Structure to design on (614 residues):
């Protein structure tokens, strides 16, 4: 392996389309490092979501497919059942996973599908222009919660991991963040553990990664990282939620 | 409601009584289908239940999905991974599958979808109907796409057409639909096939996502950004559709050789109309039946052969009139095309068809719509 800051083999040399300060790039990077480290690049099939990461297959140097919005875990189920010795993961936003695809994620977990799920929670719909997501915080203004998210009108932030923890088929759940280098390393470790869970055939695992969206949070990248530390992790506590 | 199924095997033929739904499932198994995902809905439940048993026996994969949206997406994944994959449902569930069908058509992925139609709109009822013709043949989901649509009329054809559907899907990398109805799905008839029937030859699938071992990574998608890129892809799909239209359109004809009165009907309606043709012949009417076997591509040439002269047409459907629009378009003279249809689970009777035929003839080809 070359120097520490060279590009992982699992990443292409394409420049990403992500906004400045977006978390997707960091998460792609550590995920691809782990794929290199585990030597699974040539047996990985990824399922990209509909969302900002829809073009992720341009940046990933392994097989990838796109799913219809939210059907990501169902599509991944089809691949994994046909190719049980491959590594199959989904990479999903909070609109994809926690709104339109809620049924698919719960049932893939409940069937105990041998999948890794990387759930990028940025609290908004990035791709469509910063609308409210199920994960949007109380008091947060978005283009479709112009008077902020109010529990009596817009409901509460959805804690998907805590819901998933109830399912016997789900074996490993962890929530991480990328607001500091130390947290990025924890995210990397959690991604690795998720892949290892799958490689051991133990069942369904999911890492929820709190990630900034400076563009639709309306703040600069540094401030966005601060916001995660100050506010987002109060609603979405970090750490292992389940480990069987 | 399980009838006893005596299996006999003589001269290398397997023969037994089967429901259409189960014949369809066996046709898929014998075609090498090893992935099935479905969600319960009447009148196709026997097919899902059958697959739950047969996939296990054949080391295939059966999944009862959380919805039809999920079921078709599972098929999407299985097909992208290179498997012969199938899903089935009935009308309301097929509406949900349109999302995945559009994605698969866009990504050029083969699969087989079975629609055992029931009455609609909405929840409708669970009786046989043919009211999803538009949805099946005109692209029920979004975007410019087509799928091949086969219309069986017997239990035997439920088996044969499903078997054939996998070869068409693989040949053109396209979703193929078996468009049946609750009658065909649930009735029992003798089924016969060769004991050593082979799956259609499976072409190489260099596009299958199996991991980038020793090759460049692949992606399978229906997203084509960039100026003109999607338009080019759409053009490529159109060329494929044109080729399929040219090569695969198929109709069956009954007593049409000297006919100057042609009934057009498919599936269950065609079975009934066949008897009406005989009755009309007894009355001295030179009647015949043109039965589209492929609904898309529509057998235009077969129909066009009958357009010359004074031939009048009667379209019979278990709907308020859907295929009739294609017949009118191809015949080019609406006045020559009569229609008889019953919807919502109503099934046209032989004599009703005869009566309507005579009315159409009395008006010398100016049959009024029911
Ligand atoms: C069926 C359907 N509905 C809506 C859309 C529009 N759409 C595209 S991405 C998206 C939400 C994406 O948000 P999220 O999953 O949070 O991912 P992010 O873009 O924030 O990374 C929506 C609603 C679509 N493509 N398909």
């Amino acid at each position: 392996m070359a120097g520490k800051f060279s590009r992982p083999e699992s990443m292409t040399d394409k420049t990403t389309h992500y906004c400045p300060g977006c978390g997707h790039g960091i998460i792609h990077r550590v995920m691809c490092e782990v794929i290199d480290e585990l030597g699974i690049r040539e047996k990985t099939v990824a399922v990209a979501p509909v969302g900002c990461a829809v073009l992720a297959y341009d940046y990933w140097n392994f097989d990838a497919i796109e799913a219809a919005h939210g059907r990501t875990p169902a599509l991944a189920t089809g691949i994994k059942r046909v190719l049980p010795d491959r590594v199959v993961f989904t990479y999903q936003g909070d609109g994809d996973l926690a709104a339109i695809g809620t049924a698919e994620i719960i049932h893939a977990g409940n069937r105990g599908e041998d999948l890794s799920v990387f759930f990028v929670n940025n609290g908004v719909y990035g791709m469509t222009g910063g609308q409210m997501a199920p994960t949007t915080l109380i008091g947060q203004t978005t283009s479709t919660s112009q008077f902020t998210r109010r529990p009596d009108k817009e409901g509460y932030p959805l804690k998907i991991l805590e819901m998933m923890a109830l399912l016997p088929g789900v074996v490993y759940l962890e929530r991480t963040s990328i607001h500091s280098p130390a947290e990025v390393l924890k995210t990397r470790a959690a991604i690795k553990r998720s892949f290892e869970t799958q490689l051991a055939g133990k069942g369904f695992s999911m890492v929820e990664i709190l990630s900034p969206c400076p563009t639709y949070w309306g703040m600069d990248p540094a401030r966005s990282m601060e916001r995660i530390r100050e506010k987002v992790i109060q609603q979405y506590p970090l750490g292992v939620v389940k480990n069987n | 409601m399980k009838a006893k199924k005596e299996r006999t095997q003589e001269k290398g033929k397997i023969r037994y009584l089967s429901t259409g739904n189960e014949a369809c499932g066996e046709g898929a198994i014998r075609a090498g289908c090893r992935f099935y995902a479905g969600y319960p809905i009447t009148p196709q439940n026997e097919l899902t239940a059958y697959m739950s048993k047969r996939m296990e026996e054949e080391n295939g994969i059966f999944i009862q999905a959380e919805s039809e949206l999920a079921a078709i997406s599972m098929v999407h994944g299985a097909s992208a991974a290179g498997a012969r994959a199938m899903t089935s449902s009935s009308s309301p569930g097929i509406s949900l599958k349109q999302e995945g069908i559009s994605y698969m058509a866009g990504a050029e992925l083969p699969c087989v979808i079975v629609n055992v139609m029931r009455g609609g709109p909405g929840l409708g009822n669970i009786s046989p109907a043919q009211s999803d013709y538009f949805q099946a043949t005109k692209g029920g989901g979004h975007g410019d796409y087509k799928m091949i649509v086969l219309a069986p009329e017997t239990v035997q054809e439920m088996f044969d057409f499903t078997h054939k559907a996998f070869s068409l899907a693989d040949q053109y990398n396209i979703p193929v639909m078996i468009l049946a109805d609750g009658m065909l799905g649930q009735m029992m008839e003798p089924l016969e096939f060769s004991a050593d029937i082979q799956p259609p030859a499976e072409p190489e699938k260099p596009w299958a996502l199996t991991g980038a071992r020793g090759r460049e990574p692949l992606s399978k998608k229906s997203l084509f950004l960039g100026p003109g890129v999607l338009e080019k892809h759409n053009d490529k799909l159109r060329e494929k559709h044109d080729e399929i239209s040219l090569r695969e359109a198929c109709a069956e004809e009954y007593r049409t050789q000297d006919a100057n009165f042609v009934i057009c009907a498919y599936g269950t309606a065609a079975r009934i109309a066949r008897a009406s043709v005989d009755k009309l012949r007894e009355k001295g009417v030179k009647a015949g039946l043109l039965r589209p076997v492929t609904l898309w591509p529509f057998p235009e040439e077969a129909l066009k052969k009958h357009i010359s002269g004074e031939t009048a047409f009667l379209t019979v459907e278990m709907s308020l009139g859907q295929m009739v629009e294609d017949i009118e378009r191809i015949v080019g003279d609406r006045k020559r095309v009569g229609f008889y249809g019953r919807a919502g689970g109503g099934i046209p009777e032989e004599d009703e068809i005869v009566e309507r035929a005579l009315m159409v003839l009395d008006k010398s080809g100016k049959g009024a719509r029911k």
